[in-house]
Write a structure and sequence with these properties.
Shape: flat
Structural class: alpha/beta
Distance between the termini: 101 Å
Keywords: ATP-binding, DNA damage, DNA repair, DNA-binding, Helicase, Hydrolase, Isomerase, Nucleotide-binding
Number of helices: 55
Radius of gyration: 42 Å
Protein name: DEAD/DEAH box helicase
Organism: Blastopirellula marina
Largest sheet: 7 strands, parallel
InterPro entries: ATP-dep_Helicase, DEAD/DEAH_box_helicase_dom, Helicase_ATP-bd, Helicase_C-like, Lhr-like_DEAD/DEAH_assoc, Lhr_WH_dom, P-loop_NTPase, WH3_Lhr
Number of domains: 9
GO molecular function, one term: helicase activity
Strand content: 5-15%
Strand order of the largest sheet: 3-4-2-5-6-1-7
Length: 1469
């Protein structure tokens, strides 16, 4: 429509304010101007609201100019949220004010157009003012419009309404609020002089034609279901900036506290980098929790929460503060989901999945809420399944898929309420009222009989015996309906379609101000003094009074987070299909990649506690990139999703979809079995399926199962008697018996009672308010139970008195409740359609037996309480006996359905009976009934003694092996295996003889031998017994039905019938599963300390046949040992020489001279400068370190205190010379300081001991060592010259500055490199390292990043442990190796002086003169203070070699040089 059709003032205002109209406005204005009903669908921020209001404002302006603008309401705007109504009211004031200004500027009087908002929060004074002088534009909610039509005075103000605008119509159409509104609109039609024009607005509508029918009503829809409505379909898609982001650590089945910490860190970063952020969560409890944690970081003034359980004042304050820019972020539930103007939001964050495509679009649309803005959204999945769902959600948005809105069909509870309300307003004709209400689209097919049933209920009461709910008089003679006394009050105080939840108000004392509401259960469990969180504020409970929780401000004390009970939102049908399709497509790409060797693979750690042989996964890069692009995912999120699907595919050979539903069964730790049905169909379908399964099991096995159902599957916790072929599950339910079983299951499910209470309240059978006061929740519950007992006595009666199915009475409320349960809480029609597809072969059921849960089963096992289908609490769940693994390595998962052959062999050995005397053999023969003679040869002598006494015999048949049997069991044998004779003949005692049919005897045989065999096939038994395989198979099936044995393919080892179906005693099979899993776990059990010591000896190069050598080898060893401070005299002589072949001092000097390495004291001595001259001097025992110069910056302790103040005399002069002139040779220093050579040497030694200087040669250190090694120097001059070689400089000198985080990170890497596995006890020798308390947070972060693995790797080592994949793999491999290591000798100064730390021996002081010898992780000998002690017996020849090694401080080559032969001297000799 051209702007020229508007009044010039309105046109000028629009052009000045907006410029040109949007597509939605151009397309919508013509039909609205013509008075035609119009439905506008356009993306958020496209000007829909103004498209509806513009024509209305123009009409009102023209009325004003014509003098026909009366004191009456012309336009009614209806929105589903109170906050949205308030927002629209505020936003209308601005255009009206600007139009007035425009009119004045054009020489006209400003129009006096009034607007007002009427919601449940509107004060009574304002409501009364509206009735005296109605607004021209009324902004309201469906419930308030209903009240205005019911109240006498306000009803009269609506007679001139010509336009009704319904905003966010999708949010109303999908539930009973929409049904309630359609009846209200038909009531409005009967009041107004002319039929009002109806305008519907929404960004997410599907199918749009049906929403148009819902808007206009059945009277405006022709016989082809084409509505008389102009549909402006601008679509719902627009340019979006979306991404799925995940925590740094890999997602699991449950989000850990550490991962929540990472989420909070990322949230804080996002909030701080944006102007204003809106964080959406799915529950009120999470809103409070997240807001509280963010407040702790960002402060009280910039973060708050927003949800429906907060008072209107707190919510309004939060909205205004965000709009004014005072808040950085607000954490909200769906309360801010729709088009509320809360200012410019530049980022929306959704924590967890939104469960609905439309909801997610609505939420993201809150950001960039302008014509030119780009909405920006980030999704934070918290678990692996949520990750797949979020990716599918993003993909759905990209593809333009939208959820289908399902409109409830003729809810009778709403009909009853509206009948009472309309009759209360004025006397009604019974037939006319029926015709009027049938015009509402949901009631178009309402039968007259159902209408009569509802009339009877509101006339006579819920039942004949209980008159509750009787609000009208029914004149059957004249067909008139009149109100009873109090009908109008009941309809106005207790009306509405929103079900009442059992809540308590939170009221402050003494201000008497309502803060919000909490759940009844939380309120009742609270006691005085408790502190809880509400509205991001801590409140202390003062007491409970009626339905109020009285509180005081707790002044920020640590609070608990309240909870609210409610049904979790199920995933929509469309999104569920997208989840299944995405899984399947990822799996197909993974299979294609596996078949194509040329595809690039990414090698990533498995990050789990599984087998170390599979510690690296090969993930297809192309698939990761495809997921990243297709689903707007970060690279890390895409990688995790691909690995998750790959692991499941490896475990089962397929990925469950909506067409391939997998039944997975496995044993738990208690020996029971868990059955998981992998069905990504959504909660509503799976809930119906799970309840029906529960009822079917109850009837078949007389056992009440524990069960749960969520969006992706069902869990059934089977009992010991549930032994059946897994394929039998496929036939338990079908399209014929499914619904009847489900309806019977509903009787014991809380859903029925809850929905009955809701329906009874909505139908006004139970009033919400009485005597001007709200009825307490418990009283509503009591009255509801009494009404149910009267209307449906069988439901609350004793089930033992019902031999047949309970029949639902033909009562309108009972039938409505049943319908609501089947269609709202569940989706019975789609479930039945699934069963029909199974019967037609369109959907395939697949059985899988696994030894432990597959990856997709992990979240099913850890189901939330709202998914439980039985009354057992979380603490009583049988699923707690299930242990799940963390790893997702596909290599491990491929073996998930395999049982260990060792475990099977072990169980077979254990199950086979033992007999040590004749009585025990008799027991064996009695229990097994028959024993082939070849299998009992070890007991032949015992058997012959039994035969002599007549207690046993051999049953012989021609052509078959003799069978031993106890005399008492002979009748069974003869019945099962006719044609044989007892040899010798025996007399069976009276009373033992049994008359059995052959098939009964076969069952006895199978039942008796199964507990002794382990896995067996019917063919094997048939061959031994000489029977037909079919006969044994039938007997096995009979025993299976008793719950004794289970079928499967367990083992073919030693079987001549490979591939045959096998059977196994249930108890033995549980043991095989347990031993299989235990065997795998044994491979990841912590090792003993001696194994770790053996590992360290290898890891630090002390035991290799060919050790490192040369400059490169030296760099590797220094890289391993840097940061460790050992005595100066032991570095070359003990540490390096022990780890390298033919160590030469020149290697170290060259590295020092080139600047690659540096030596010095990392942690200087502590002292008091006032105490006098320093006694420090570089002696053999002074600790020092040799490090790679490039790493010195982070190796220096972060709190290193210089010892400069301790330097005195000559040392001070030398230090000042070095500080002023830089690095100097010995001769230069002597010239500058004018010191004698010996005095200069002493000064340099003092400074080196104080950690103040270093030298680019190691000669000074060697001089100290040599002086101690040889009392008389052979060449004093030569030694001094060597000692004075090289340049001296300040230590540590110029070093790179590192952050505190990098400092800790690099130290963690160094320590893990040194020890492979790091824990607290290893730090007792690490004098320069940060403390364990400083390292632990960084180690945890490195674990989350995948750099390290945390766990328990070494036994009896306290605290947390961390290690690399390679080290852990080598460590556990070493456990299996034979302990035949050669012995090694290490100095007391060596890092491997761990006596008393990793052994039970006494600690050996870390002195360079002490030595210890390790062998196979055991302390063999020590040298302490010159005294040698052998702690274990040693052969004499080795004792001599060990003695030499103890004196040398390292192991020496065997002595081949004659005594007295001169040798080259060095510190390494």
């Amino acid at each position: 429509m051209s702007l020229e059709l508007f009044h010039p003032v309105v046109q000028a205002w629009f052009e000045k304010r907006f410029g040109k109209p949007t597509d939605a406005q151009n397309a919508g204005w013509p039909s609205i101007a013509q008075g035609r009903c119009t439905l506008i669908a356009a993306p958020t921020g496209s000007g829909k609201t103004l498209a509806a209001f513009m024509v209305c404002l123009d009409r009102l302006f023209r009325r004003w100019l014509a003098g026909k603008l009366h004191d009456t309401t012309y336009v009614v705007y209806v929105s589903p949220l109170k906050a949205l109504s308030n927002d629209i009211h505020r936003n209308l004031d601005v255009p009206l004010m600007e139009i007035c200004e425009m009119a004045e500027s054009m020489g006209m009087l400003p129009p006096q157009i009034r607007t007002a908002v009427r919601t449940g929060d509107t004060p009574s004074s304002q409501r009364q003012a509206m009735t005296r002088r109605p607004p021209h534009i009324l902004v309201t909610t469906p419930e308030s419009l209903y009240l205005m039509l019911t109240a006498e005075r306000s009803r009269k103000t609506l007679t001139n309404v010509d336009t009704v605008i319904i905003d966010e119509i999708h949010a109303l159409a999908r539930d009973k609020r929409g049904s309630h509104l359609t009846l209200t609109l038909e009531r409005l039609e009967s009041v107004t002089a002319e039929s009002p024009t109806r305008i519907g607005l929404s960004a997410t509508q599907k199918p749009i034609e049906e929403i148009a029918c819902f808007l206009v009503g059945a009277e405006r829809v022709d016989e082809n279901d084409v509505p008389d409505c102009a549909i402006v379909d601008g679509g719902h898609r627009r340019q979006l900036d979306l991404e799925v982001v995940v925590p740094q650590s890999p997602l699991e089945a449950v989000c850990s506290n550490e991962q929540w910490g990472e989420v909070y860190d990322q949230l804080v970063e996002m909030i701080q980098s944006h102007h204003s952020t809106l964080v959406f969560v799915n529950t009120r409890r999470m809103a409070e929790r997240v807001a509280h944690r963010l407040t702790e970081v960002l402060g009280d003034d910039v973060i708050t929460s927003h949800h429906g359980s907060l008072s209107k004042e707190i919510r309004h304050s939060a909205e205004q503060r965000l709009k004014e820019g005072k808040l950085k972020a607000i954490v909200a539930t769906a309360s801010l989901e729709m088009g509320i103007d809360i200012g410019y939001i530049d980022l929306v964050v959704q924590i967890g999945s939104a469960r609905s495509i439309a909801n997610f679009l609505q939420r993201v649309g809150r950001s960039g809420h302008s014509l030119t803005g780009t909405p920006k959204g980030r999704l934070f999945p918290l678990t692996r399944d949520e990750l797949i769902e979020c990716l599918a959600l993003m993909r759905s948005v990209e593809k333009g898929i939208l959820d289908r809105i399902e409109i409830p069909v003729a809810p009778l509870d709403i009909l009853a309420q509206q009948i009472v309300a309309e009759v209360a307003a004025a006397e009604q004709d019974e037939a006319a009222l029926f015709d009027r209400f049938r015009k509402a689209w949901p009631y178009r097919d309402l039968s007259y009989q159902k209408y009569q049933d509802v009339l009877e209920m509101v006339n006579e009461g819920v039942t004949r015996s209980i008159k509750t709910g009787a609000h009208i008089h029914r004149d059957r003679i004249n067909g008139k309906l009149r109100p009873r006394r109090g009908a109008r009050i009941s309809a106005t105080t207790s009306g509405g379609a929103i079900p009442d939840m059992p809540i308590y108000r939170v009221v402050t004392e003494p201000e008497n101000q309502v803060v919000g509401t909490v759940d009844e259960h939380f309120a009742v469990d609270s006691k005085a003094g408790d502190v809880f969180l509400l509205g991001n504020t801590s409140w202390r409970v003062a007491g409970i009074k009626g339905s109020d929780v009285l509180v005081h401000d707790a002044q920020g004390q640590p609070p608990s987070v309240p909870f609210w009970f409610g049904e979790a939102p199920g995933r929509t049908i469309e999104l569920s299909k997208e989840v299944a399709d995405l899984r399947e497509e990822i799996a197909e790409r993974i299979v294609a990649a596996a078949e194509d060797p040329s595809r690039e693979k990414l090698s990533v750690p498995s990050l789990g506690d599984g087998l170390l042989e599979a510690s690296q996964d090969q993930v297809d890069v192309e698939t990761i990139l495809w997921v990243q692009k297709e689903c707007h995912a970060s690279a890390w999120a895409a990688l995790q999703a691909v690995r998750y699907v790959a692991a499941q595919h490896a475990a089962m050979g397929l990925v469950p979809t909506q067409d391939k539903i997998v039944f997975e069964r496995f044993f738990d730790e208690a020996g029971s079995m868990q059955l998981v049905v992998h069905a990504p169909l959504g909660t509503r379908i799976n809930r119906a399926w799970g309840l029906a399964f529960r009822k079917r099991f109850c009837r078949s096995f007389d056992f009440e199962l524990q069960a749960s159902a969520d969006d992706d599957g069902i869990v059934l916790s089977l009992g010991p008697q549930h032994s059946f072929p897994l394929e039998d599950m496929f036939k338990m339910l079908n399209s014929d018996n499914g619904q009847s079983l489900l309806e019977q299951a509903l009787l014991a499910f809380p859903m029925f009672q809850i929905r009955w209470r809701w329906n009874a309240t909505r139908s006004l059978a139970i009033l919400r308010y009485m005597g001007g006061k709200k009825v307490p929740p418990h009283m509503v519950r009591f009255r509801s139970d009494d009404l149910l007992a009267a209307a449906f006595p069988d439901q609350v009666g004793c089930l033992e008195n019902h031999a047949e199915d309970i029949k639902y009475p033909d009562h309108p409320l009972v039938q409505q409740t049943l319908h609501d349960c089947l269609t709202e809480g569940m989706d019975v029609e789609r479930w039945k359609d699934l069963l029909r597809k199974v019967e037609a072969g369109e959907v395939q059921f697949i059985a899988r037996q696994t030894r432990e849960p597959s990856p997709f089963a992990h979240e099913r096992i850890n189901a939330n309480p709202y998914s439980f289908l039985d009354p057992a609490g979380l603490e009583d769940r049988r699923t707690r006996a299930v242990t799940t693994r963390r790893t997702l390595a596909p290599g491990e998962m491929r073996e998930l359905g395999q049982l260990s052959s060792e475990a099977i062999a072990t169980v077979r050995r254990e199950a086979w009976p033992t007999a040590r005397d004749v009585d025990e053999l008799h027991d064996v023969l009695s229990s097994m009934i028959v024993l082939p003679a070849s299998q009992g040869q070890e007991w032949k002598s015992l058997f012959e003694r039994l035969v002599k006494t007549g207690r046993a015999t051999s049953y012989v048949r021609p052509g078959h092996e003799p069978l031993w049997t106890a005399t008492e069991k002979l009748p069974i044998v003869m019945a099962a295996l006719p044609g044989g004779t007892a040899s010798p003949a025996v007399s069976v005692p009276e009373g033992v003889t049994k008359d059995l049919e052959a098939h009964e005897a076969w069952v006895e045989l199978v039942r008796s031998v199964a507990p002794c065999l382990g896995p067996f096939s019917s063919e094997e038994l048939a061959q031994i017994w000489g029977l037909k395989s079919s006969s044994v198979m039938a007997a096995c099936e009979a025993v299976e039905a008793e719950g004794v044995i289970l079928r499967g393919q367990y083992s073919t080892q030693g079987s001549q019938h490979e591939g045959d179906l096998q059977w196994c005693d249930r108890r033995l099979l549980a043991r095989i599963h347990r031993l299989t899993v235990h065997g795998l776990r044994q491979q990841i059990q912590p090792v003993e300390r001696d194994v770790f010591l053996r590992f360290l000896v290898r890891h630090q190069n002390l035991q290799r046949d060919t050790k490192s050598s040369g400059a490169r080898g030296l760099s590797a060893m220094i890289g391993l040992l840097q940061g460790f401070e050992a005595s100066a005299g032991s570095w070359e002589r003990n540490l390096l020489a022990a780890r390298m072949d033919d160590y030469a001092p020149d290697w170290l000097d060259n590295q020092l001279t080139s600047g690659e390495m540096i030596w010095g004291r990392l942690r200087p001595p502590q002292g008091d400068a006032e105490e006098g001259p320093s006694m420090a001097s570089l002696r053999r025992s002074v600790p020092m370190a040799i490090v790679l110069r490039e790493n010195l910056g982070w190796l220096i302790p972060d709190v290193r205190q210089s010892a400069e103040a301790l330097a005195r005399g000559n040392a001070r002069d030398v230090l000042e010379a070095l500080q002023s002139r830089g690095a100097l040779f010995h001769q230069d220093l002597r010239v500058l300081t004018k010191l004698l050579p010996t005095h200069l040497d002493e000064a340099l030694r003092e400074l080196a001991a104080l950690g103040l200087v270093t030298c680019d040669s190691f000669s000074a250190v060697r001089k100290i060592v040599d002086d101690g090694h040889a009392k008389k120097s052979r060449s004093r001059h030569k030694t001094n010259a060597t000692a004075r070689a090289g340049r001296w400089s300040l230590f540590p000198g110029i070093v790179e500055e590192v952050t505190a985080e990098d400092y800790l990170h690099r130290w963690c890497q160094q320590l893990v490199q040194r020890y492979g596995v790091l824990f607290r006890d290893l730090l007792h020798r690490e004098t320069a390292a940060p403390s364990w308390a400083q390292l632990v947070p960084m180690l945890r972060r490195m674990e989350r990043r995948g750099e390290l693995r945390g766990g328990r790797f070494v036994k009896n080592a306290g605290g947390e442990q961390y290690g690399t994949e390679q080290a852990i793999y080598a460590l556990r491999k070493l456990r299996e190796a034979k302990p035949d290591d050669p012995w090694v000798a290490v100095s007391g100064n060596d890092p491997l002086n761990l006596a008393g730390v990793l052994s039970d021996d006494a600690k050996l002081p870390a002195i360079h003169t002490n030595t210890l010898i390790w062998q196979n992780g055991q302390l063999i000998a020590t040298k302490r203070g010159g005294e040698i002690t052998f702690h274990h017996p040693v052969p004499p020849d080795e004792q001599m070699e060990m003695t030499r090694a103890l004196h040398a401080g390292r192991r020496l080559p065997p002595q081949t040089i004659p005594i007295g032969f001169p040798r080259r001297r060095s510190t390494a000799s």
